[in-house]
Amino acid sequence: MTAPLTGRPVISGTGLFTPPESITNEELVASFNAFVDRHNAEHAEAIASGTVEALSHSSVEFIEKASGIKARHVMSKAAILDPATMCPRLPERANDEISVMAEIGVAAARQALERAGRKPEDVDAVLCAASNMQRAYPAMAIEIQQALGIEGFGFDMNVACSSATFGIQTAADYVRAGNAKSVLVVSPEITSGHLNWRDRDSHFIFGDVATAVLVEDAGVAPAGHWEILGTRLKTVFSNNIRNNFGFLNRAAPEGEGAADKLFVQEGRKVFKEVVPMVAQMILDEADRLGLEPAMLRRLWLHQANAGMNRLIAHKVLGHEASDDESPTVLDTYGNTSSAGSIIAFHKHSDDLGAGDTGLICSFGAGYSAGTVFVRKVA
Predict the structure, then answer these.
(1) What CA–CA distance (Å, rounded) separates 67 from 132?
(2) What are the Cα distances from residue 204, in Å, to 23, 215, 245, 304, 364?
(3) pLDDT of residue 1
(4) CA torsion sign, 308 to 310 to 311 to 312?
(5) Dihedral, CA atoms, 329, 334, 340, 345, nearest 10 degrees?
(6) What is the pLDDT of residue 246?
(7) What does the pLDDT read at residue 37?
């Protein structure tokens, strides 16, 4: 007998694909400094004349102080660490082969389905929510849908680092409206492809990963799921985080004006503007839901910068958050864009008990921010 639908969305399961290769800060700094030495030697005369600015070395101490990152997983380690290349090199696949983004997305999705005790035929829709898509069309979501053997529909969505939380609210709205009973939100993030590995201020930030979240109607959800108490989204336009690459404005990797075709940001401005915006958004939504912020058992925050997370958590909880209250995966994964808060939730939620409440929160370029308040159900 089929259980009656309730229109109440829950998270039934999550999945994670982690690339097997990882780059430590020590490896990254050695590669970057070799590139700097080569650049400065090749342009020695221009540097001496003042027409070209000498590049400066990076250091492990600088990276860890600036970000809290110690390592990051990547899909193409050797090419990134090669001072002559310094960007991922993934072999192009034929059109009849599964694309790399779909492949890692499928791996994360299969794990989410398995953890929820679901089969592909139980799913109604696939949302591919990520910061950078491998192609414009056909949609990555439709390819993932095809690879999994899911009926129904799929589409891509991009809200930068908030893509996953925006996807979760979209999936939850489908459940609330009765348009779907089970929706996969898949976030394959090959962020190494849009990072400028030659830029001292940002060459350490990003890593690659894929996550998946299965959002379902409470009436069909397995035991031990997470009730979605409420969601809130916010966007405010800002140029302080930007990537200008696109079919209208392509440039060669080292061509004139190429730097802004990769990730660029004004970090201090981002920190100053995003932290209060996100903290207030969390407090406002908690108040709307009748939740006492200090009673939140755990915060699964976007993994962008350790300092930002510490300050946001302090503003929300009213005290310095412990590692248990606000766990981090930033140190070993780096910034994985929309996947970061989902990795934290995936790895640090099984130990909580029935009735515990928590917050999944993302924030990033746009600016964009998303909150998903959840409660563990026995």
Answers:
(1) 22
(2) 10, 33, 20, 11, 17
(3) 40
(4) positive
(5) -10
(6) 83
(7) 98
Please say if 161 is a catalytic residue. Answer: yes
Cα four-point dihedral sign 57, 60, 65, 67: positive
- Alpha helical stretches, state H, the chain: 25-42, 44-49, 60-67, 77-81, 100-116, 140-148, 163-177, 267-289, 306-317, 330-333, 340-347
| Domain annotation for the chain: domains and CATH numbers | 226-376 (3.40.47.10)
Is residue 126 within 8 Å of 148, Cβ to Cβ? yes
Q: Given 87, 128, 161, 361, which residue is catalytic?
A: 161
Provide the token pair at 60. 């492990």
DSSP SS3 for 89:
coil
Q: Check residue 134 and report its DSSP letter.
A: S
Residue 300: exposed, middle, or buried by beta-carbon count in 10 A (0-12, 13-18, 19+)? buried
| Alpha-carbon gap, residue 68 to 323, rounded angstroms | 13
- For residue 4, the model assigns a pLDDT of 85
70: closest CA among 25, 20, 33, 32?
25
pLDDT at 245: 87
The H-or-E segment that residue 91 falls in is none
Give residue 185's identity as a one-letter amino acid code.
V
Q: How much is the pTM?
A: 0.95
What does the pLDDT look like over 230-281, one tens digit per residue? 999 999 999 999 988 888 876 555 544 567 788 999 989 999 999 999 999 9
Please give the single-letter amino acid code of residue 107.
A
Phi, psi of 372 (to 5 degrees): -130, 105
How far, in Å, CA of 319 to CA of 341, rounded? 21
Alpha-carbon distance 349 to 341, whole Å? 12
pLDDT at res. 177: 97
**For residue 42, what are its two tokens?**
């090749």
Burial of 30 (0-12, 13-18, 19+ CB in 10 A): middle
d(CA 372, CA 300): 10
Cα 161 to Cα 168: distance, rounded to the nearest angstrom: 13
Q: Given a cut of 70, is residue 337 above it in pLDDT?
A: yes
Q: Which helix (H) or strand (E) is 6 found in, with range?
A: none
E strands, the chain, are 9-17, 21-24, 71-74, 125-129, 153-157, 182-190, 208-217, 226-235, 241-242, 264-265, 298-301, 357-364, 368-376
